[in-house]
Give the backbone structure.
Amino acid sequence: MKKWIFFLILLYVIQKVEGQGKVMPAFELSSVWCDTRKISVWIPNGYAQPGVKYRVLYMHDGQNLFDSTTAYGHKEWKVDETVSKLLTQESIEPCIVVGIWNTPKRFLEYAPAKPFQWMPDKARKQIENAPYYRGTPLSDAYLRFIVEELKPFIDSNFQVDPSPAATFIAGSSMGGLISLYALCEYPHVFGGAACISTHWPLRLENNSPAFTHAMIEYLKPKLALLIDKKIYFD
């Protein structure tokens, strides 16, 4: 009897995982632009169906997306469950999710470099000297990694549509900030960005308006060029 109960529980777990698609084992991807990092790829149930070109959602903080054992504070974002539900409801097009794990340089890689350089010297130095920065933003190099190295890898190894209309980027907090920056810098690559609970002031302990003003000035000419893009921002 105990063996049968164990078998039924195991069967339920397997079906539940299959119903929510599959998170492939994380792998490391090296770069000439930034530090080597892990990449997780989630594929939906039934992938890959013949003739279907899957859309791609790139997401920052990849270790937080699918697994509570690797997530910050052991609170996963349940991206696999959520996307699976939307696919079942036919609310979204067939897609895969690419999770880009962060590194100890998360703040530097997620802080938009160009608006940062427009800040007054004093405000810029304060951020550069903050303990979680210790330097100038590395976001331009990080985005080149995504666009020039990661995306070609995904396009070559998965059954996906590489066009901008089928390529999206998303993140939370600083991940929301870098997602908006990515769309502005690479509108020919991404069709939209989801910026969730966006962290706006850059510094945690001092809500200085300096970066806000610089980012707004940066966005003014950029947003006018994104009329055909999809943006979610909160």
